[in-house]
Structure formats: C-alpha cells, structure tokens
C-alpha cells in the first residue's frame, strides 16, 4: 500500500443515538470504574464513545478516542404539550438560567429550538459528575444521556470494511510520468484533468443506469443539503465544479492534515457539474463528534438555510478486536430513539426529505439498519454491485456489503426503499482509484429527487413532498428479475426495496400522483381511488402508496395543555407509547376492530388479540391498505391483489396483467387513530404501467 494511504483516518460515529461500539474490557486498556457505571434507573442512559482510527505503517489500526467534552444530553419535560417552537425555546433557556442561578459548573451548552432538549459539556469527568448529582432530582429532567469519554488508546488488527471500499490503484497511474494519451488519445493539461474525466465517465455510466442522462439540462437552481461527518473536509480543488456554487461549512478536523475524500465525492455525485443534479446549489455541512452539534446543524440547515432535501452518507461501523471477534455494542442494535423521532418530526412539519445510505455491512448478519435510520419518513438507499449495467438492468444484483437487515418488529417497513449504482472513480485528494459503497448510492438518489423537484414545481412547493416523492420512487423503480428474491408483506423486496430508480419513469409517476390529507379519527373508508385504467394482457402495473408518520405533531394548539410533571412524561408520550416492546399491561385493551370491508381483510380476521391491540393502539401511524381491483362483467369491482400490512407507512403492488380489461386501485383507511389531536395524515398514491417488453 502506498505510504500516502497510510495516513488515512476513519471515524467511528456515535452521534445521534448511535454508539459505534462499546469498548470491551477484554482489550488491553485502562478500565476506570466510573461514577455512572452502576446507574440502573430508566432515567439514565449510557452511550458509547466515538473513536477515530488510523492505519499505521505495519497495517495495525490504532484507535484514538474522540474527546466529546464529557457530553451530557438532557431530555426535558416542560409540563405542557405544544408545537410552538418559540415556547419550547423559551422553556429551554429558562432551564439554562436555572442552572446558572444555581451556579453549577460547566464548560458550554447547546439548546434545541424544536424539542425540550439541552446539552452540556465539561472540562473533566468530576465536573460532569458533580453537575449531574446537583440536578438529578429536578422535576424538569426526564432523562439523562451520558456519553462515555474515558477510553485510552488501544489497538485492533483490522477493520471490516475500513471505509468506503477501494479498488487498488492501477500500476500505471501510480507513476506521475504516465502518458495520459493512452486514454482514448485525449490530451490532458494535468493529471487532475485526467482523473476528473474518469470520474465523469463513471458518473455518466451510473446516470444511464438510473435513466437520467437525458434530463441534465433543467437549469432551475434548487437547494441540496449534504451533511457529512467531521473529519471529512472538502477538497477545495473541486470547488469550481459546481455550476451554481457550493457553500462549504467545514469545521476544523480533529486530526491535522486530514485528507479524506468522502465529503467531496459525495457532493460531486449529488449536484456537481458532472453529477446527477448539475445545476442546484449545494450546502455542505460537517457535523462534529457531538450529538448536540449534529442536532443543531440539521436545525440550521432547515430553519436558516431553508433546505428541504438532505443527503446523509454516514453511519456506524463495527470493529473487530485482536482475536478476530466482533466488538458488541447493545446500542448498536437499538430501537427507535429520540434522534429518529427528531428526523421524523422535521420531515412531517417542514417537509424535509432525508436520504440515508443503508450502510456497508450487509454481509454481516448481525448488522442492522437501526437508530436514526429507523426514522419512518426517511429514505434509505442500498447499493448495486459494481458491475451493474443499464443493458442488464433487471439482472443487476445488490452488492453483498449493502445493508438491509432490520429488527423483527420493523421487518416490513420499506428500508431500503430503493438501490442505486455506487461504483465511482474517485480523483479527490489524489486517490485516483475506483471506490464504492452505499455512501455513493445515496447521493445518486438525492440528485434524482432534486431533479424531480426541478421538473415538477408542484412537488417542490408542496409541504406534502415527502410522501409524494416516496410513492413516486417506489412506483417507478425497476424491479429485479432474479431467483431467490424475498418479498415483505408490504410489497418491498428485502434487499432491493422497490428496485432501481428510473428517472424517466419517475416523471411519468409524477404525472399520475394523488395526495390527500385525512383526519386520523375519520371513519374507515376508501380515501383515494384511481381513474379507470384500460390495461392489456402482458402489461405490468406498479402502484405505490405512502403516508407520513406524524411524529406526535398536534393539529389544534390554541392554548397550552398543562400536566403534572410527577405523573406524566413528555418523551414517553412521544417515543415509548409507540414501541411494540411496551409490556402488554401498559397497553389499553380493545374489544374489537373497525374494518372498512371484512372481505378485503380476510387475512387479518384471525389475528390474535395482541395483534389486534397493535392495530388499534400504540401504533406508529394509521393503518391504510392498498388494493388493485378489476371490473367484472356485471360492473362490480373485484379485488385482484392487496397489501394489508399493519406496521408500515409505504405499500407497493406490482402485477402483471393476465386478462385485458378495466382496472383501478384504491387506498382504504382501515383503523381510526385514537389520538384525536394529531395533525392530519398525508397520503400519496401513484402508478406506472409498463409494456410487454418490460
């Protein structure tokens, strides 16, 4: 390996509720018994420390703990329900003032402008301990989240995988005397131009796979946000390759002379001059190792910059210790948490489309899509194999590293939603090699969504854009045609999701969409229906419905609703009431179900009482069903195919027509949500029809 690659560093993220790993006590390190080790009440949660890793000259991975300034996150209980963010902000500042009045010692703090949530930072662990002991009986504090900051340097012998995966540098490109004219007899003024051309070639190939090549010329200047992690500084040599500019909000790298190409190549793919969206302005932000900074950065992107589309190409990594054993981290396999809820909230309230890479551990059967990537309103993108082509589109396979696994209780949700090409030539910081990973698949989809909104101003200007875009992506995607596929009851394939995006067909689906707002307490009924469609034998229709998780947002808030801090929980109301892991004793019992049509729910009539409770209570969202029907000779509509999944907010039907005739599809509302003050549901629906040669 060339020496210049020996200095590469990688970050193992632990922000947004994710611990990259718990450092096992079997490793050679100094283990300190900390004051919080024996905290066992539900009011305290310990999260693991972030680690930066460097590759030494002898290929040993040296791990450097990241100093998080003894971060302490407090989930507060204001004693009232409101979505008035000014009141929440005022409450948070009043809490800070109370801390100041009590003359408590801390280094700095952050406050949320959306939730009752604050963060404190300290000079030493003793200062944090003293601070917590002073406030742990305060009624306003619902939960303490303590981020570990104690591990000394230790070593492991390998990373798997260490970063976005890289092809070896071609031998001839390692020489700076290499004659570039062997590449198609082109003359390049510099090697940078040569390597840039190779990126352009790879980008154009991937654009052809997603059928976007003929749609680069829309010059509307949109806004695309890219959130990266803190060590990935942008290579300023590529700043000029953004037609309408890139606003770079880097922070100082933790490790000096950091030269990681990640943020640069992700930006180039998303909306560079030779990427997928070639005219929008890019807002690149880099978050540091603190949970508070990640949260505040997203708030700034949304509320100050007005960004409504954000690419997130980051996630947790696993380590393997010196004995070749994986390092366990219970939080790594954690459930839906307050940061996933934050993402769902901003999606529902502000119409923010969050696009996430699925992760690079699909070949590890213990790796899960979890934590903030469980946010129901977010789009998760997997990766196609490196040899994916346009010519064999339906035969392309998912990369073996592309993550797809979920906790059992979330197994039917649409994660991943789609898969995209992820094999790009990387010229940044003189990498000069092909690289691949889900981090590069996500910006392909982000760029496609940005292009869609350039062509469709009605979607761009709609606060319902999240549900609309998810339905369009699903209905227009090209489904795989392979053996061994495994479909979820929601209609999505386990690894492929809806399939590979097809931008031309996305525009067609965008012409067919419907969207409607529905009261959660409205009675069960048909809420959306298509026009009557004349379909021929051999054609294939693909239909998708998508609706928002409302994230507890209130519809009516004319006055504050106060409650007792001693008897009520702000955050439990927001999070735990939705969790299937709640004990059955804590759920309200239900005598029966209110179905729209028993015939369309024959598969559900046998449900156990516990499943019935799930449908009626403690739901994440209202239950809607998607149904394809055919008109018979008497004019009656007969169900051909339906999706009746309970825990999902995306449903997909693909059906090859075996008998020509008149068809329609409908969305039925199955259950009423007992949360009467919730905002209305947003439900989107669309379809595409493909001909016999599909």
N-to-C terminal Cα separation, in Å? 45 Å
Apparent shape: globular
- Helix percent reads 10-25%
CATH-level-4 superfamily name of the largest domain: Peptidase S8/S53 domain
Count of individual domains: 3
Low-confidence stretches: 1-32, 53-61, 152-163, 166-188, 577-617
Q: Give the helix/strand class.
A: alpha+beta
The biggest beta sheet reads: 7 strands, parallel
Keywords: Hydrolase, Protease, Serine protease
Domain Peptidase S8/S53: 222-499
Protein name: Subtilase family
GO biological process, one term: proteolysis
What topology does this entry show?
Layout: H1 3-6, E1 9-12, E2 44-47, E3 51-55, E4 61-65, E5 72-76, E6 80-81, H2 85-101, E7 108-111, E8 117-121, H3 125-135, E9 141-147, E10 154-156, E11 158-159, E12 165-166, H4 191-209, E13 223-229, E14 246-249, H5 262-271, E15 281-287, H6 291-303, E16 309-312, E17 319-320, H7 338-350, E18 353-357, E19 379-383, E20 418-420, E21 423-426, E22 433-436, H8 438-455, H9 457-460, H10 465-476, H11 503-512, E23 514-518, E24 525-529, E25 533-535, E26 540-547, E27 561-562, H12 570-574, H13 609-616, E28 624-631, E29 637-643, E30 650-656, E31 661-669, E32 681-690
Parallel strand pairs: 2-9, 13-15, 13-16, 14-15, 16-18, 18-19, 19-20
Antiparallel strand pairs: 1-3, 3-4, 4-10, 5-8, 5-9, 6-27, 7-8, 11-17, 12-22, 21-22, 23-32, 24-31, 25-31, 26-30, 26-32, 28-29, 28-31
Would you give an account of this structure?
A hairpin with a 5-residue loop joins strand 3 and strand 4. The protein has a seven-stranded parallel beta sheet, sandwiched between helices. It has three domains: 3-158, no CATH class; 164-210 and 221-315 and 325-508, Rossmann fold; 514-690, Jelly Rolls. Mean pLDDT is 80; it is low at 1-32, 53-61, 152-163, 166-188 and 577-617. It has 694 residues and is an alpha+beta fold. The protein is globular, with a radius of gyration of 26 Å. It contains 13 helices and 32 strands. Helix 5 (262-271) runs parallel beside helix 8 and helix 10 (465-476) packs across helix 11.
């Amino acid at each position: 390996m060339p020496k210049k690659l020996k200095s590469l560093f990688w970050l193992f993220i632990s922000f947004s509720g994710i611990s990259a790993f718990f450092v096992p006590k079997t490793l050679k390190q100094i283990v300190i018994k900390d004051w919080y080790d024996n905290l066992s009440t539900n009011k305290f949660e310990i999260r693991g420390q972030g680690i930066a890793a460097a590759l030494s000259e002898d290929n040993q991975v040296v791990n450097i703990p990241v100093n998080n300034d003894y971060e302490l996150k407090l989930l507060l209980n204001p004693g009232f329900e409101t979505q008035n963010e000014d009141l929440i902000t005022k409450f948070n500042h009043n809490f800070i003032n109370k801390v100041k009045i009590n003359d408590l010692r801390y280094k700095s703090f952050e406050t949320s402008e959306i939730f009752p949530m604050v963060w404190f930072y300290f000079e030493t662990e003793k200062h944090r301990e003293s601070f917590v002991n002073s406030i742990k009986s305060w009624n306003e504090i619902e939960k303490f989240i303590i981020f570990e900051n104690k591990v000394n340097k230790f070593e492991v012998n390998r990373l798997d995988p260490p970063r976005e995966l890289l092809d070896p540098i071609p031998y001839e490109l390692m020489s700076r005397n290499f004659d570039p004219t062997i590449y198609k007899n082109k003359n390049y003024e510099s090697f940078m131009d040569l390597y840039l051309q190779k990126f352009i070639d790879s980008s154009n190939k991937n654009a052809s796979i997603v059928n976007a090549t003929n749609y680069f010329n829309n010059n509307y200047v949109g806004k695309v946000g890219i959130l990266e992690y803190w060590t990935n500084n942008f290579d300023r040599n590529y700043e000029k390759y953004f037609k309408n500019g890139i606003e770079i909000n880097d922070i100082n790298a933790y490790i000096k002379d950091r030269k990681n190409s990640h943020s640069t190549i992700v930006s180039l793919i998303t909306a560079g001059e030779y990427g997928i969206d070639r005219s929008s302005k890019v807002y690149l932000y880099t978050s540091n190792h603190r949970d508070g900074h990640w949260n505040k950065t997203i708030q700034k992107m949304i509320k100050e910059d007005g960004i409504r589309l954000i690419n997130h190409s980051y996630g947790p990594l696993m380590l393997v210790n010196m004995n070749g054993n994986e390092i366990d981290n219970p939080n790594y396999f954690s459930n839906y948490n307050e940061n996933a809820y934050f993402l769902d909230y901003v999606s529902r309230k502000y119409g923010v489309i969050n696009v996430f890479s699925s992760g690079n551990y699909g070949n590890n059967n213990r790796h899960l899509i979890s934590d903030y990537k469980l946010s129901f309103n977010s789009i998760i993108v997997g990766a196609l194999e490196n040899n994916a082509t346009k010519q064999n589109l339906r035969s392309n396979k998912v990369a073996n590293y592309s993550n797809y696994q979920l906790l059992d209780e979330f197994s039917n949700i649409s994660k991943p939603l789609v898969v995209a090409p992820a094999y790009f030539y990387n010229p940044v910081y003189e990498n000069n090699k092909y690289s691949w990973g889900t981090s590069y698949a996500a910006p392909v989809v982000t760029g496609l969504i940005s292009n869609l909104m350039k062509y469709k101003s009605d979607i761009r200007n709609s606060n319902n854009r999240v549900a609309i875009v998810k339905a369009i992506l699903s209905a227009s995607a090209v489904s795989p045609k392979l053996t061994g596929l495994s479909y979820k009851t929601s209609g999505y394939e386990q690894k492929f999701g809806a399939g590979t995006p097809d931008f031309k067909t996305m525009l067609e689906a965008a012409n067919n969409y419907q969207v409607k707002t529905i009261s959660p307490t409205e009675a069960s009924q048909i809420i959306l229906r298509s026009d009557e469609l004349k379909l021929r034998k051999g054609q294939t229709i693909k239909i998708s419905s998508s609706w928002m998780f409302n994230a507890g947002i209130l519809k009516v808030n004319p006055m504050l609703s106060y409650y007792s801090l001693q008897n009520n929980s702000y955050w439990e109301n927001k999070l735990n009431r939705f969790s299937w892991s709640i004990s059955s004793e804590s759920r309200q019992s239900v005598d029966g179900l209110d179905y729209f049509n028993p015939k369309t729910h024959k598969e559900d009539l046998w449900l156990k009482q516990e499943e019935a409770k799930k449908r009626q209570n403690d739901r994440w969202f209202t239950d809607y069903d998607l149904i394809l029907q055919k008109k018979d000779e008497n004019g009656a509509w007969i169900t051909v195919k339906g999706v009746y999944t309970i825990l999902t907010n995306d449903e997909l039907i693909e059906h090859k027509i075996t008998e020509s005739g008149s068809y329609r599809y409908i969305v039925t509302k199955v259950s009423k949500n007992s949360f009467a003050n919730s905002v209305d549901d947003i439900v989107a629906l669309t379809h595409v029809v493909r001909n016999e040669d599909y």
